[in-house]
Amino acid sequence: MNLERLTADLQGLLEPEDVLTAQEDLASYDAPARYEAGRAAAVVRPRTVDGVSKVMGYCVSRGVRLVPQGANTGLVAGSTADGSGTQVVLSLERLRTPLRVDPANRTARVGAGVRLSALNQALEPHGLFLPIDLGADPTLGGMAATNTGGARFIRYGDMRRHVLGLQVVLPDRQGSVVELKGGLRKDNTGLDLRQLFVGSCGALGVITEVEVEVHPRPRQTAAALIALANPDAALPLLQFMEREAGELLTAFEGMSRAAFAAALAHAPALRNPFPGGPPPYAVLVELSTARSPQGGDAPLGQVLEAILAAWLETAEADAIDVLVGAPEPLWAIRHAISEGLRAKGQVIGFDLAFRRSDLPAFRDAALDRLGRQFPAVEICDFGHIGDGGVHFNLVAPRPGLPDAGLKALRTCVYELAVGQFGGSFSGEHGLGRANLESYRAYTPDLVRELAGGVQNVFSEAPIGAVDFVGLFREQA
Amino acid sequence: MNLERLTADLQGLLEPEDVLTAQEDLASYDAPARYEAGRAAAVVRPRTVDGVSKVMGYCVSRGVRLVPQGANTGLVAGSTADGSGTQVVLSLERLRTPLRVDPANRTARVGAGVRLSALNQALEPHGLFLPIDLGADPTLGGMAATNTGGARFIRYGDMRRHVLGLQVVLPDRQGSVVELKGGLRKDNTGLDLRQLFVGSCGALGVITEVEVEVHPRPRQTAAALIALANPDAALPLLQFMEREAGELLTAFEGMSRAAFAAALAHAPALRNPFPGGPPPYAVLVELSTARSPQGGDAPLGQVLEAILAAWLETAEADAIDVLVGAPEPLWAIRHAISEGLRAKGQVIGFDLAFRRSDLPAFRDAALDRLGRQFPAVEICDFGHIGDGGVHFNLVAPRPGLPDAGLKALRTCVYELAVGQFGGSFSGEHGLGRANLESYRAYTPDLVRELAGGVQNVFSEAPIGAVDFVGLFREQA
Description:
16 helices, alpha+beta, about 35% helix, about 475 residues, 5-stranded antiparallel beta sheet, globular, homodimer
């Protein structure tokens, strides 16, 4: 379709300034956080659900390929146009109303374009927060569409667990607007279609409003960094913490020696907390509670100290050092890992997840296999091991691996992680173009057929006509 | 189809003793917990997934109408045959393997026929439990298929939150067996079809294995019964408890004066804890923690006392009496309500759910409207108000209302609860024949169309041919 005609039509549906086509205006919509930039034909930014509906109906009718985008903070090429220059980015960033807190229901309803930080700001006066903890500041629509997880998953779960209601616009010729459940915690009245949209990356339609359950803000937080002599000691420590800290446990993060060292090397302001240097494996544990300290109660830091002291008495405790301290400096080390790895060389990232019980065996097998097949590549794994998530990131010395080597490396890791250990090739980042190949390789045929069939139910667009709509459908 | 032929065919597919047709053998499968008995043509009880698959393929091919059944503890006519005598009950009760606990992953994988009590028994040595707390002892397959909630929902959520994996048999001619996700907490790799099966009442297929996340068992529990001068004081108390008890809060149950009085009257062993008689409204609060009491920590009962003492200082506290005590006797009152109401007269039960913020206004409106239109009927509401759930049960003096009156009463309550207040007509009991009329009345046309379309994707059976399969599909 002619770009001028398309632009004029979209401007006619909305306001002229709602449609961007100038190269400099498109740049930020084309440039994602950590992967290659795309090239959109245009960006449309409706201000209302009605505007989204009009754009959707038009694009479906004309076969214009749409890519929905929130804050463009995703990591799997799910929110940017491909390189063809023919797709239109549908930005939801201007859907910033409603932003309505219902403190008695402990919920909030927001437009899809509301940012996590803006929601938490609105929740703060009520002593509430949305406990999805991420490195980025995504929109709530994007969080629902990709089912974000994060560092406090072990206590609070993923976005799915918090979504009580959605408003969506379907990819049909009318751009039908559908409400899927309201602000009810309990509503067991048929197929829960809302669940399909959570984590579907826009493949079934575009989320325009989100209602979430929120939680009392923690009033006390305590953290500890534990240096383990042996990575295998992490799992028994996790079980001990769950048993003894119970509902207080809010994070359990693992860091390999290489990841830990990279963080410290990259951020000189971070002091190495362990005199002997980065340990073979480190665990960051966080406890938190919404309760304020009562007279007579031990402060949370003392509680954590007592639990760890008891753990040190056990036979399984293979510890070099235990450091209970203020959470921020300890998290700073954990958060510096990603940048630290990028400073080291070419990062080949994997967002894997496993049964927790499989973590040690997978790690051993991966070290062995990669050490033999890819000796130049350093394994710098870290992650939310309390929920089985591993950012199994590898670093190749610059200039990095050639494409064929990269492909062989990816295949090797996925074969081991997914094929042999039954793990996930995308624990929390979602699908998107980056993971389509893995989706096809590791999803059983029948499941893919069912997913494609379900997508057909929601979409009138022909396969490939609306890009994200083609995600689960395959040409025969 | 000829019953003898059907029986012979089914016996040929399984073992002869796996198929029941004698009236006395069918009785317990036909008689549900609390509604009218059905009449099955036969009951098949496969011992393996392979057996389920064979039965399914046969029945879909021949148009035999199947009704899946777990422990038959449901309340909405979802697990029994209708009165036609032509449907076959597919009992999953013999699928009692696997029963496998993975303590390091904090999960368990079980056959659909494993009972909740059996699972918890297997979990106990590991200090774990499945925290779905119900009056009945259902099978895990039934719990997943109906997405059970229960009394500890406010802390632990519903069954959906715990299902990490399902094995299902689809209603197609092959009786296809599909694995939907494994024991992973994080697996963001496409449409989460597993979610569709949770709460679908068998409409998309039969669940044969379930994998659930489980939790550390509480080591301390404390409870209090609070007599309120005014039902409207319950909501501010709930907010206060969430703020001050935070993650310790595991139950927040409300009881109207009539419900409370009925429980005491029916169970003479229960002492009335309040000298002034049943209060206008009573709240049962429970705290629990997986932590064992540490030296210096206040016992949980004292924590609860301190929180309630602080609440009594607030302006909102409209309390007659506060009683902190052992949990069991206090729960005994709450659990005696259902029987107590049945002893009083004809119970017309409603399993409603609301935004918590709507609870007071709904209650006022219902009291007003029913008081005028149905003066003989007594409102004996109680429920899990911490999550917005209300067992809005009404009692009519014996011999009870005539059918027309019953219908008018139901319509009146649903119009108010669902039509006006946006509540749910089935908060936790699920669909089933009992709620099909409400499903049609209160589900938007487009949502019903989408649900029917989704069901078509999973089923090859013609509409009406396999009974549960027709649930969301409607004749044009």
